Amino acid sequence: MATSPLPRWAPTPSPSGPLWHPSSAAAGASSTRHTPSPFRAILGALCRFGRVPTAVSQPAAPAVEAAEVTGDGGDAGFDGADRRRDGRRWEFGRDGGVFITWEDVWVTAVDGSGGRTATILHGVSGSARPGEVLAIMGPSGCGKTTLLDALAGRLDTNLRSKGEILINGRRQKLAFGTSAYVTQENVLMSTLTVREAIYISAQVQLPDTMTVAEKLARADATVREMGLAGALDTRIGGRTSKGISGGQRRRLSICLEILTRPRLLFLDEPTGGLDSAAAFHVMSRIAGLAAGEGMAVVAVVHQPCAEVFELFHGLCLLAAGETVFFGPAADAAEFFASNGYPCPPMRNPSDHFLRTINRDFDMESGERSLSKPSAADEAIQVLVNSYKTSNISEIAKKAMHDINEMEGVMIRRNQATFLTKVLVLTRRSFLNMYRDPGYYWLRLGIYIAISLCLGTIFYNFGNGYNSIRSRSSMLMFIGGLLTLMAIGGFPSFVEDMKIFRSERLNGHYGVSIFVISNTLSATPYLMFIAVLPGAIAYYLTGLQRGVDHFAYFTLVLCSCTMLVEGLMMIIAAIVPDFLMGIITGAGVQGIMMLNCGFFQIPSSLPKIVWKYPVSYISFHKYALQGFYKNEFLGLVLQNNQEGQEKTISGEEIITKLFEVEMGHSKWVDLAVLCGMVVAYRLLFVVIIKVLDMVKPMVKGARVRSPIHCTCSFQNPCYSL
After folding, report:
1. Given the DSSP bridges, would you call strands 84-85 and 88-89 parallel, antiparallel or unpaired?
2. DSSP letter for each residue of 23-92
3. Residue 639 exposed, middle or buried by CB count within 10 Å (0-12, 13-18, 19+)
4. Residue 366: pLDDT over 60
5. Which residues pair with 133 in a beta bridge?
6. 237-277 per-position pLDDT tens digit
7. Pseudo-torsion of CA 404, 405, 407, 410, nearest 10°?
8. DSSP letter at 638?
């Protein structure tokens, strides 16, 4: 095989003994094995018992109902060894193992404005097996996370993919409990402690066939496996408070997703934020779980240390979206050496691989040009072409073919019941709202301050003619501008939406459970911030006395705040950025207030658009009408207008002066507000469902032609 010059940084190969030595491999192919290390020897011995123990003895965690799969036989691992549990091969029917294969997968990014495309993945292929850890490695921007998202079915709308991705040899969706995805970003509820987060997640994910004690025991065992026992009572922390470290957050994110012992685990940078020792312990626990539970693990790893690299059974090495190497991790060094890029002695193999194929800095150093490719470009071209014709590639293709012939079918695992999820998530949401000052407590303080201002400015209206204007202005401010400030809790709700999207994608619960639990947990707080500030403003200004009048006043005020919360939920589903969401929410409410009948009486509103339909969908109209009827009906005020009666009734005021619709009572207005509260929540559910259906259609419409890649290593595809 032709060789190419070593990269500019590579030292002269040492004549001393190599770090990696050749040995025979499965299927009679020539391959290598790494010199035995204590880490690999210890892991191999432990994996035979099915689990890597922690420093502290652990009670056996209760088993979850296994996902069953029907089919025939298991398959040898990357290194030619059968992955066994209790001496048996992993089989579909008996163990519920999940095999995933992908063949000729292309992913193209589309620029929505200009219609330009850029190919991210170029026909990559591979497979992952139960009981093994497959590492996806490569330089930044080579398509590692894109490949992981494609395998998990999580590609963004601006990405289009083609190729075969099969689960147990069939096209089928990943059912709950059979797969889990740990994203690169740690999406956690900052106000909870580590114990609360893991216990609540266990009660939501694990089935009700397990008792609460068994669920908590599973949670405790998982926490110990990730080394978080010392931080159980520490809050996670976030934007408002310091909590656990970034590495502990990373381990907690992994904990939450391995509670159900999924058959297929996707990890995006599981060692991010961890030191080398913590990274080794975390990956060794994951490797032990994979061996003991029959779990297929696919992990994107940026740059593992030597000890972590030894834990990988398979390696998928990418460069510029192409497959440089796919096969046993222990064979990668010999593959590089046979093509003229040997790993120097005492160097981490993963460092050597990445430095050989990293071309990011060649352009800055002036080494890359159209006429003369850089050393990294040449190395990538040599390695890619060599892999396509190598025995390792043929073995990988044969293994994929054998897996696809098994024709296994996954069976969905049991979950907690609908009621259990609602109750647990309501408790979690209530606790989060209680501990987050930005959710309701800051708003309560501002409401009290504004109510005191209203009470002192409009103190004791009296019964004079001028009190008509004062009463209407005060009621409009309460029903419109005060409820407008409910958008202040939007940033906290956006954080909740991030958690909801992450947990929903992993199948923990659906949108209806989220809406119900959020509504139940928020209602007590909304009632509280309506009653206390409302009482201050109501009695200082001298509105109509009577418990029934005050009760109606607070009910309308509470309904308005709930409506604004529902409106902001809808906006959060469409505009996830909190700054844009606040601006959008304020604008929508401003338009509604302009048509409520206060700034312009209804008869003077332009009939097209503003009266029909805007004024009728504005909740401010019904709130203001209810306030007017509650306050003015039964009230008699002095009339100082010349030539008129000395007194004027409240009914006459709201009929002639404010043009309030008198065909129905104030309770109908309240009922309309309550109906709109429910409608806004239902509209949020509908929007989430519609977006789920529209996104695939938009993805297909944005790319109207098949993928044709004309790039090369001298003329590569660049990011948009």
Report:
1. antiparallel
2. EE-GGG-EEEEEPP-HHHHHHHHHHTTTS---SS--PPPPPPPPPPEE-S---B-TTS-B-EETTEE--H
3. middle
4. no
5. 297
6. 877 778 898 889 999 999 999 998 888 999 999 988 888 88
7. -40
8. E
pLDDT of residue 74: 43
Position 445 confidence tier, pLDDT thresholds 50, 70, 90:
very high
User: What 3-state DSSP class applies to 207?
Assistant: coil
Contacts of 243 (CB under 8 A, 6+ apart): 190, 234, 235, 236, 237
Distance CA 653, CA 645 (A): 13
Phi, psi of 209 (to 5 degrees): -70, -20
C-alpha–C-alpha distance, residues 596 and 586, integer Å: 15
What residues form DSSP beta bridges with 711?
Answer: none
Q: Which two tokens stand for residue 599?
A: 């700034």
Return the amino acid letter for 56.
V
Strands 296-300 and 264-268: parallel
What is the tens place of the pLDDT at every residue in 664-710? Answer: 999 999 999 999 999 999 999 999 988 887 766 655 554 444 444 43
Task: Give residue-wise pLDDT tens across range 272-286.
Answer: 888 888 899 999 999
pTM over the 0.70 mark: yes
Upper half-sphere CA count for residue 442 (Cβ side, 13 Å): 14
Q: Where are the alpha helices (DSSP H) in 143-231?
A: 144-152, 194-205, 212-225
How far apart CA 244 and CA 234 sit, in angstroms, is 7
Find the mean pLDDT for residues 333-356. 91
Cβ atoms 533, 453 nearer than 8 A: no
CA angle 233, 235, 241 (to 5 degrees): 150
- Preceding peptide of 262 cis, ω within 30°: no
Write down how long the chain is.
Answer: 720
Q: What is the pLDDT of residue 97?
A: 78
In 458-546, where does DSSP find H-type helix? Answer: 467-476, 483-484, 490-505, 511-541
Residue 571 to residue 577: CA distance in whole angstroms: 10
With a CB cutoff of 8 Å and minimum separation 6, the contacts of 309 are 135, 329, 348, 349, 350
Q: What is the pLDDT of residue 438?
A: 83
